[in-house]
């Protein structure tokens, strides 16, 4: 008895499918061989052109990198020029003022300047290191009014024990009360009010403690809080 017609047809379709697949594979190998041969011939006959294109691409990449560096330096120079005007701080938010003070620190030679201000900073808005390795802890107060002794007392309670400061710096755009100055002197906290900040920004004269080479000892008052 002969095979079922449907079975025969399916077998023929499978055979044709296999033949088509083999044909496609063969065509693919042939195309790859032709492309490889053409590529070798092209490379051999156009070697100079390929080298020229490669060199041009490298030069363009180098030029783009140089232009990017120049643009960043120009932007930094413009920012530094703006930072010399203390009036720019009047429109700043607290975080913007922290970045402003950080730029002054970097400009004047401090290293590893890190802005950490925000919730949970425990008074350390900025940390940095002097050229002789002392750790500087900075608290920034972008105030229009007065900074009093409670602010100094709170900063004193964290700057030394928690943040391990060698230099504690409180920088404000506002005014410092007499009591704040008296307490800061006892606690060895360096205060920078608006007038001192203007001198620092405009004339490039940071607080003297940032440029001294002798590591100051911490006072008993500073350690005890």
Describe this structure in words.
This is Restriction endonuclease type IV Mrr domain-containing protein. One of its GO terms (molecular function) is restriction endodeoxyribonuclease activity. It comes from Phytohabitans flavus. The chain has 225 residues and is of the alpha/beta class. The protein has two domains: 74 residues; 136 residues, Trna Endonuclease, Chain: A, domain 1. The chain is built from seven helices and seven strands, in the order αααββββαββαβαα.
Oligomeric form: single chain
If helices are DSSP runs of H or I spanning 4 or more residues, what is the number of helices? Answer: 7
Strand count, sense and closure of the main sheet?
Answer: 5 strands, mixed
Rg from Cα: 35 Å
Determine the N-to-C terminus distance: 108 Å
CATH-derived topology of the largest domain: Trna Endonuclease, Chain: A, domain 1
In which order are the strands of the major sheet placed?
A: 1-2-3-5-7
Q: Which structural class fits the helix and strand makeup?
A: alpha/beta
Q: Which key features would you list for this structure?
A:
225 residues; 2 domains; two-stranded parallel ribbon; alpha/beta; disordered C terminus; 7 strands
How is the topology of this model organized?
Blueprint: H1 5-45, H2 47-83, H3 94-107, E1 111-115, E2 126-129, E3 135-141, E4 146-147, H4 149-159, E5 167-172, E6 175-176, H5 178-187, E7 189-192, H6 194-203, H7 220-224
Parallel strand pairs: 3-5, 4-6, 5-7
Antiparallel strand pairs: 1-2, 2-3
Helix pairs in contact: 4-5
GO molecular function: DNA binding; restriction endodeoxyribonuclease activity
Pfam families: Mrr_cat
InterPro entries: Restrct_endonuc-II-like, Restrct_endonuc_IV_Mrr, tRNA_endonuc-like_dom_sf, Type_IV_Methyl-Rstrct_Enzyme
